[in-house]
Design a protein that fits this description.
By secondary structure, the protein is α/β, with parallel strands linked by helices. It contains 11 helices and 11 strands. The chain folds into 2 domains: about 80 residues, no CATH class; about 130 residues, Rossmann fold (3-Layer(aba) Sandwich), CATH 3.40.50. Helix 4 packs across helix 5.
């Protein structure tokens, strides 16, 4: 249940098309559904503008299917992140209506296309090709929230001219998610060139003293470009949600 769905429900009651008792039965399912191993939040889209998302890591395929089916039954769109290829085989066998991205390790089901969010696109930028899987997770998350996007891949500081060739395009973006491993320098460079919010994502790509992304994380946290926001290592989903929260706050302010 999102704001539009609740508004339509109330309008049907007001017009007499729906009995109050029937509306009450619908609202009884609104807060959450208790599956024993999970409490599926049906209220999140109403509170935050985006339905609950399933983190596949750490869950059994059976648990993932159980939560996904409950969201599906509630009429919500389904997004599963960190879904390994092995788990995906079982999950898609049980729910073939899901679409799986091998690169982003995400699965999604769109039952109700999200309302397009007006305005310029959000740019998702990677330093290298090896960073694209994390970027793909961000792109899938943004898409499920109706956010227009553009992608600029493999423009890291090892060849800065590649980034500068896309600067005009990046300058049109509403916000930028910049994904980088190794020393994690790209978000600082981008943050010094554009005015829009920059969300930096360190990745676990790198040798030895990259320490699985810790070097990139620390580099981004100490960025000399003012106001760069940093999320956790490999957290493309979290970066996308940071942008979505900003856009949702804008939308609700304009709606008042």
């Amino acid at each position: 249940m999102d704001q539009q769905g609740l508004r339509e429900l109330l309008q049907r009651v007001r017009s007499g098309d729906l009995e109050p008792e029937a509306a009450l039965r619908t609202l009884e399912q609104l807060p959450f559904a208790d599956l024993g191993y999970a409490r599926v939040d049906h209220h999140r889209a109403l509170r935050q503008g985006v339905p609950e998302v399933i983190l596949g890591a750490g869950k059994t395929p059976e648990q993932i299917v159980g939560v996904a089916r409950r969201l599906q039954q509630a009429g919500q769109n389904v997004l599963i992140t960190r879904l390994s290829a092995e788990a995906a085989e079982h999950v898609l066998g049980a729910m073939p209506e899901l679409t799986y991205s091998v690169l982003g390790r995400t699965a999604c089901l769109v039952q109700k296309p999200p309302a397009p969010r007006e305005g310029p696109p959000v740019a998702v930028v990677t330093a290298g090709t090896s960073d694209i899987p994390v970027a793909e997770e961000a792109l899938q998350t943004l898409s499920m929230a109706g956010v227009p996007t553009l992608s600029v891949f493999d423009v890291g500081v090892a060849g800065l001219h590649r980034l500068l060739a896309s600067l005009e395009t990046l300058s049109t973006a509403r916000a930028l998610i910049v994904v980088a491993g190794m020393e994690g320098a790209l978000p600082s460079v981008v943050g010094g060139l554009v005015a829009a919010p920059v969300i930096a994502v360190p990745t676990s790509i790198g040798y030895g003293t990259a320490f699985g992304g810790v070097a990139a994380l620390l580099g981004m946290l100490t960025s000399c470009a003012s106001g760069v926001t940093v999320v956790n290592i490999d957290n493309g989903f979290g970066a996308a949600m940071a942008v979505i929260r900003l856009l949702e706050a804008e939308r609700r302010k304009e709606a008042r």
